[in-house]
Amino acid sequence: MDPPTPAADAREVAVVVPAAGRGRRLGGTPKQFRMLGERPLLVQVLLLFEHHPMVGHIVVAVPEAEVPAVTDRLRAEELGALTAVVGGGQHRQASVRHALRGVPDPVEVVLVHDAARPFVSAAQVQEVVQEVRTAGAAALAVPVADTLRRGADEQFGDTVPRDRLYRMQTPQGFRRDWIDKAHRRAADDGERATDDVALVHRCGHDVSIVPGHRRNFKITTPDDWALAQRRWTTWVDTPDRLRLRTSESG
Question: Which residue stretches of the chain have pLDDT < 50?
Fold first, then answer.
């Protein structure tokens, strides 16, 4: 694998973070604003990208009413890569679409990352960016390990072969023109999808698989939050968190 992209190329890479959800399954304070360690979850996620040499811009979508307060909070963290805080939409897809409008013109690669995934590593972000530069689109994913079965009326049905099935993660990365077009088309056609890979697929583009890690889970439930709190205390000081991959490390 090639060495990390020079810092000058960071101007061409933006990260979009949709963080306008209400976290109803978790309950209470929206999870992106809960404290994870010494900072809110959203800030912990953004700091990884702030310190990443391949990322030049960060655009965050938050609830419209929270834009001034969140902007002030993030400025207090002195996030140099923070480009814009925008009002999100009624659902994730709309929030990503709103955030894309805040991405500056020089950007050629856009990453979309969940605000509730604090355990992604810098090397994984690097690999997604490099694959986007080669293939146009890429996303982290892990093979499905569990047995899958259909079910109806509280009864199991057929077993679903798990070969070639993947559990999607983020970041998901795309050529800027591909993701822009995918969201414009979806808005015009009234299409909804659970992630951005599906929207880009609908435009006829292939998306490369970049191996993810089970550690990079999305915080959704109270059990997820409890697990994240336990793991964060060790993860925050783990060298692999911010270490980039080099040609020597394979």
Answer: 1-6, 8
| Domain ranges within the chain, ordered by starting residue | 9-232
Q: Supply the pLDDT for residue 184.
A: 97
129/138 Cα distance (integer angstroms): 8
pLDDT at 246: 82
Q: What is the pLDDT of residue 31?
A: 87
Strands (E) in the chain, as ranges, are: 13-18, 35-36, 39-40, 57-62, 82-87, 109-112, 137-143, 148-152, 155-160, 166-175, 208-211
What pLDDT shows up at residue 61? 98
Tell me how far apart the alpha carbons of residues 153 and 123 are, in angstroms, rounded to a whole number: 44
Give me the half-sphere count of Cα atoms (radius 13 Å) on the Cβ side of residue 28. Answer: 10
The dihedral through the CA atoms of 144, 238, 117, 104 has a sign that is: negative
Sheet holding 208-211, edge to edge: 82-87, 57-62, 13-18, 109-112, 166-175, 137-143, 208-211
The answer to whether 158 touches 148, Cβ cutoff 8 Å, is: no
| CATH code reported for the domain at 9-232 | 3.90.550.10
